Structure formats: structure tokens, C-alpha cells
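Progress note, project year one: complex with iron/sulfur cluster.
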Amino acid sequence: MQVLEVKAKSALNRSGMVELDYAFNAYLGCAHGCRYCYAADITPGESAETWGETVRVRVNIIELLQREIKSMRRGLVGISTITDPYQPIEAKYRLSRQAISLLLANGFRVSIQTKSPLVLRDLDILRERKRLDAGVSLATPDSQISRLIDRKSPLPEARIRTMRELTRNSVKTWMFMGPIIPGINDSGDSIEALISLAAELKIRVIYDLLNPYSGAKSMLGDSLGPGWLSSMMGLDRRKWWEKVESTILRVAREYNVKCNSEASELSAETGLLYKQLF
Ligand code: SF4
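Model obtained:
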């Protein structure tokens, strides 16, 4: 994997996600290289062909952040929105850690989303913080499926361990269950395994379906093969999602887990919700 040091022009950007006020991305590109990642389509200098091969480190971002926060309205900052803030290179550069400390010390709220146990390195600054939450993404409990779709991300067991440690240390933790991909991780068993885990850990779940960005479609097509591609042809996405979502909500009721969809927000923003996959 190639690592390039670059200069950022700004540290906090307006987020496209309705629940966040700002996005903070210390890195461009992501070593995890997930096959469904929408960031491959929207990260400058990246494409589906090379996604996961290069990470650009925005080396001046903490200096910019220190300057920007002096005059910015306080709000909720997503760390991160187009990369994993705790991908392996964070062990060396520690930019996500520095940003979280700085933001919390200056009255901002912080919402972390990661797939990596490296977040546990920072428990000293995360535990028992009222203005902070940490989400761990988990699309499947199955390691083999994870290798196909999450590619170089930490395996499900490592992420489950991470959620356990975060909750044990009183970090407000949530699970991102997604993206749900037709025919891959949309079975009742897979959904129940994840929601029952959330019940055991007493955490909430945010779920989402696969959105048809062109990069994600081509990467998944390469990983999952022609059998999956042909099964997607003619899939009625609306009917499929209604069925899957009703399963999610039924299981969530059974386990008494609070489940919220990210899909309705995304639909309003992009109109992608019921667009056909292929
Ligand atoms: S960890 Fe997140 S940002 Fe990184 S490739 Fe996977 S989905 Fe994209």
C-alpha cells in the first residue's frame, strides 16, 4: 500500500449526513478497501480500480483544526465520513486521536465510526465522555463473507471484541449494521446474530442498505462473481428492502434493541434508496 503525505486546505467540512454538522477526515483513501465503499466514488484522486491501495495523510490537518475551531459554531463532528479514522496508518500519525482531544476540549461533540480495534488505544480520552459516541461497523458475523466484502478490514471477531471493550469502558457505543447487500448478508439469521449481540451489549443499532454507487457495484461484482451479478438483474429493490427492513424491525422488537435506519435520510438526500442496483 502506498502512503502519500499531502496538505489539506481545511480541517472541518460541512457533512453531507444530516445528523452531523461537520466531517473530519485526516486521511483520504482507506487501507481497508471495502468493496461496497461509497467513498471510492467521492474521494478526490480515488477510483474503484485502485480503492484501498493508496492512503493520503493530510499532515497539516491538526494545525488547520486548531485555527478553524476558534471561530466555528460548536456542533457534532463525524470522525470520519469518507475513511476509517483508525485504519492502520493512524497508529503512526495519531491524527484522529489529536483531533478528538482538541474538539472535546473546545466544546464540540464527536461521533466516531470505525471497524478497527485501534480505537481502543485511545480509551484514555474516550471513556466516560458525555459529548462523544463511538460506532463500530459490522455487516456480517461471518468471517468468510467479511473477507469478500470488507476485504482488508479487521475480522468480525475483532470488531465484536472492540464493541465489548468500548462498552466495558463506559464509552457510548453503537453498532452500524450495514450495508445490507442482497443475497449476501440479508438473511434472518445474519440479522438476528447482530441484533442479539447489540442486545447483549445494550447498545443501539443503525442500519443501512447497499446504495448503488457505480464504484461499489463494480467492486462487488468483481468480488462476488457472475452468479451474484446475474441474481441482481431484475431484483425489485423496493420489495427486497421492505422485506429485509421488516425482518430487522421484528427482530429488534423481540430483543428490545433500539434500531434506526440511515436509509430514509440517505433517500431524502440522494434519491438513491429505491434506484435499481443493475
Ligand atoms: S472502512 Fe469504511 S471508509 Fe474504509 S473502505 Fe471500509 S467502508 Fe470505506
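Residues 30, 32-34, 37, 39, 83-84, 115, 153 surround iron/sulfur cluster (CB under 6 Å).
The mean pLDDT is 93.
No further modelling is planned for this target in the current period.
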